[in-house]
Amino acid sequence: MGDVDERRAGRQLDLIGEALGAAGRTGAELWLRGGWAVDFTLGRVTRDHGDIDWFTWAEGAEALARELIRLGYTEVAGPPAELQRDFAKDGLESSFTLIDRDHLGRIVVAGGPWAGTPWPQDLLDGGPGGLGGLSSPAAGAKGPTPASSA
Q1: Most CB atoms within 10 A, among 87, 89, 111, 147?
Q2: Is the pLDDT of residue 70 over 60?
Q3: CATH label, 6-137, candidates 3.30.70.20, 3.40.50.360, 3.40.50.720, 3.30.460.40
Protein backbone atom coordinates (compact mmCIF):
# COMPACT_ATOMS: atom_id res chain seq x y z
CA MET A 1 0.00 0.00 0.00
CA GLY A 2 3.04 2.30 -0.14
CA ASP A 3 2.58 5.68 1.60
CA VAL A 4 -0.98 4.78 2.59
CA ASP A 5 -1.86 4.57 6.29
CA GLU A 6 -2.35 0.80 6.22
CA ARG A 7 -3.97 0.66 9.64
CA ARG A 8 -6.61 3.25 8.70
CA ALA A 9 -7.20 1.62 5.31
CA GLY A 10 -7.64 -1.75 7.04
CA ARG A 11 -10.15 -0.29 9.49
CA GLN A 12 -12.04 1.32 6.59
CA LEU A 13 -12.07 -2.00 4.73
CA ASP A 14 -13.57 -3.58 7.87
CA LEU A 15 -16.31 -0.93 7.81
CA ILE A 16 -16.92 -1.55 4.12
CA GLY A 17 -17.39 -5.22 4.94
CA GLU A 18 -19.77 -4.34 7.78
CA ALA A 19 -21.83 -2.05 5.54
CA LEU A 20 -22.04 -4.72 2.83
CA GLY A 21 -23.16 -7.26 5.46
CA ALA A 22 -25.76 -4.83 6.81
CA ALA A 23 -27.05 -4.24 3.30
CA GLY A 24 -27.31 -7.97 2.70
CA ARG A 25 -29.31 -8.47 5.89
CA THR A 26 -31.71 -5.61 5.13
CA GLY A 27 -32.07 -6.07 1.37
CA ALA A 28 -30.49 -2.68 0.64
CA GLU A 29 -28.27 -2.31 -2.42
CA LEU A 30 -24.95 -0.49 -2.12
CA TRP A 31 -22.47 0.88 -4.63
CA LEU A 32 -19.14 2.31 -3.54
CA ARG A 33 -18.48 5.76 -4.96
CA GLY A 34 -15.54 8.12 -4.98
CA GLY A 35 -12.05 7.00 -4.05
CA TRP A 36 -12.98 3.61 -2.64
CA ALA A 37 -14.88 2.83 -5.87
CA VAL A 38 -11.68 3.54 -7.79
CA ASP A 39 -9.63 1.37 -5.45
CA PHE A 40 -12.08 -1.54 -5.61
CA THR A 41 -12.06 -1.27 -9.42
CA LEU A 42 -8.24 -1.33 -9.45
CA GLY A 43 -8.05 -3.99 -6.74
CA ARG A 44 -5.58 -2.03 -4.61
CA VAL A 45 -5.52 0.89 -2.19
CA THR A 46 -4.12 3.89 -4.07
CA ARG A 47 -4.31 6.61 -1.40
CA ASP A 48 -5.59 7.53 2.05
CA HIS A 49 -9.35 8.04 2.20
CA GLY A 50 -11.09 10.60 4.38
CA ASP A 51 -14.30 8.61 4.43
CA ILE A 52 -16.27 5.87 2.70
CA ASP A 53 -18.85 7.03 0.16
CA TRP A 54 -21.79 4.95 -1.03
CA PHE A 55 -24.91 5.14 -3.16
CA THR A 56 -28.05 3.36 -1.99
CA TRP A 57 -31.73 3.47 -2.92
CA ALA A 58 -33.77 5.80 -0.70
CA GLU A 59 -36.40 3.11 -0.28
CA GLY A 60 -34.10 0.86 1.77
CA ALA A 61 -32.19 3.58 3.62
CA GLU A 62 -34.14 3.48 6.87
CA ALA A 63 -33.71 -0.27 7.37
CA LEU A 64 -30.02 0.04 6.52
CA ALA A 65 -29.66 2.91 9.03
CA ARG A 66 -31.27 0.85 11.79
CA GLU A 67 -28.89 -2.04 11.09
CA LEU A 68 -25.82 0.21 11.07
CA ILE A 69 -26.89 1.72 14.41
CA ARG A 70 -27.37 -1.80 15.78
CA LEU A 71 -23.75 -2.48 14.75
CA GLY A 72 -22.48 0.49 16.75
CA TYR A 73 -22.56 3.28 14.18
CA THR A 74 -23.76 6.73 15.22
CA GLU A 75 -25.74 8.83 12.79
CA VAL A 76 -24.17 12.26 12.41
CA ALA A 77 -25.63 15.52 11.19
CA GLY A 78 -25.03 16.30 7.56
CA PRO A 79 -27.06 17.07 4.47
CA PRO A 80 -30.83 16.62 4.64
CA ALA A 81 -31.66 13.01 5.60
CA GLU A 82 -33.70 12.57 2.42
CA LEU A 83 -30.54 13.33 0.41
CA GLN A 84 -27.78 11.56 2.36
CA ARG A 85 -27.31 9.61 5.60
CA ASP A 86 -23.96 9.99 7.39
CA PHE A 87 -22.60 7.66 10.07
CA ALA A 88 -19.47 7.34 12.18
CA LYS A 89 -17.89 4.38 13.91
CA ASP A 90 -14.52 4.27 15.64
CA GLY A 91 -13.73 7.78 14.39
CA LEU A 92 -14.32 6.87 10.73
CA GLU A 93 -17.14 8.23 8.58
CA SER A 94 -19.39 6.58 6.02
CA SER A 95 -21.80 8.57 3.83
CA PHE A 96 -24.74 7.06 1.99
CA THR A 97 -26.05 9.24 -0.85
CA LEU A 98 -29.67 8.36 -1.56
CA ILE A 99 -30.88 7.72 -5.09
CA ASP A 100 -34.32 7.10 -6.52
CA ARG A 101 -36.03 6.72 -9.89
CA ASP A 102 -38.36 9.25 -11.45
CA HIS A 103 -41.56 8.54 -13.40
CA LEU A 104 -39.42 7.90 -16.52
CA GLY A 105 -37.26 5.33 -14.70
CA ARG A 106 -34.19 7.57 -14.62
CA ILE A 107 -31.84 7.48 -11.62
CA VAL A 108 -32.29 10.77 -9.77
CA VAL A 109 -31.27 12.56 -6.59
CA ALA A 110 -33.69 11.27 -3.96
CA GLY A 111 -34.30 14.40 -1.90
CA GLY A 112 -33.17 17.75 -0.66
CA PRO A 113 -32.83 20.84 -2.82
CA TRP A 114 -31.78 18.78 -5.89
CA ALA A 115 -34.54 16.16 -5.61
CA GLY A 116 -35.37 14.77 -9.02
CA THR A 117 -32.13 15.91 -10.66
CA PRO A 118 -31.00 13.11 -12.98
CA TRP A 119 -27.70 11.37 -12.36
CA PRO A 120 -25.85 9.98 -15.39
CA GLN A 121 -27.83 6.91 -16.35
CA ASP A 122 -24.70 4.75 -16.32
CA LEU A 123 -24.15 5.73 -12.66
CA LEU A 124 -24.45 2.18 -11.36
CA ASP A 125 -22.68 0.50 -14.28
CA GLY A 126 -19.19 0.62 -12.78
CA GLY A 127 -19.28 -3.14 -12.33
CA PRO A 128 -18.07 -5.25 -9.47
CA GLY A 129 -14.76 -4.61 -7.84
CA GLY A 130 -12.79 -6.35 -5.18
CA LEU A 131 -10.23 -5.59 -2.52
CA GLY A 132 -9.07 -7.22 0.70
CA GLY A 133 -11.29 -10.25 0.18
CA LEU A 134 -14.39 -8.05 -0.29
CA SER A 135 -16.49 -7.58 -3.40
CA SER A 136 -18.67 -4.55 -4.05
CA PRO A 137 -20.30 -2.86 -7.00
CA ALA A 138 -18.64 0.46 -7.78
CA ALA A 139 -20.40 3.52 -9.15
CA GLY A 140 -18.98 4.50 -12.51
CA ALA A 141 -19.98 8.14 -12.90
CA LYS A 142 -18.68 11.31 -11.26
CA GLY A 143 -21.75 13.37 -10.41
CA PRO A 144 -25.21 14.61 -11.29
CA THR A 145 -25.96 16.15 -14.64
CA PRO A 146 -27.89 19.40 -14.93
CA ALA A 147 -31.61 18.93 -15.56
CA SER A 148 -32.25 19.28 -19.27
CA SER A 149 -35.76 20.64 -18.84
CA ALA A 150 -37.93 21.97 -16.05
Answers
A1: 87
A2: yes
A3: 3.30.460.40
